[in-house]
Amino acid sequence: MTPRSFAICFCGGSGVAYGVRLCEVLLGGGHTVHLCATAAAIRVLVHEAAAAIDPESPDLRTLFPAPLRAGLHVHARDAVEATPASGSARLHATILVPCSMGTLARVAHGFSSNLIERAADVALKEGRPLVVVPRETPLSVVHLENMLKLARAGAIVLPAMPGFYHRPQAVAELVDFVVGKILDRIGVDHALLPRWQTPPPTAAGSPWDEGEA
To answer: What is the pTM of this model?
Structure first.
């Protein structure tokens, strides 16, 4: 696959493992990643991923092995002059993962107060893929209305809801399930999760057989 450029944005929701893993897969595939994180996302990284980074002066490059860093560009959240802020940069897609409800609300209403929100706004106005990966439950009417507003504007709303039909045995497999769904929507080939195939019938019959589901 021809290498492409992506904007990956970590917001303050739980589930930063999805974002880190997405970056690993894209960088490992030779793609370019423009990475930005909110202040809340940095705190989540320290708490959930036990990342050894300084919240006051974070170096997100240290999240990834040295061989993966060649295609990684890290931007401060207030760097509104950075590549993801411009439509002429022609990034292939922008992914907010995880996407907090606050960031989702501001993007849905065109309120760009930092690079992450601007990058999402640019993706929408340029008609390029914008994937938002909310990780929140339960969802209020406000959350649902904001998601609907974004979907109507052309965004892909992809909640972090891992499936279980592949019988995962580890948390990493659940993370890969969601990351695989993201990669599918941005057109990047991968083998992170098994593709569903109709189960073969058993001697006693299968609940998946036609007419028995």
So the answer is: 0.91
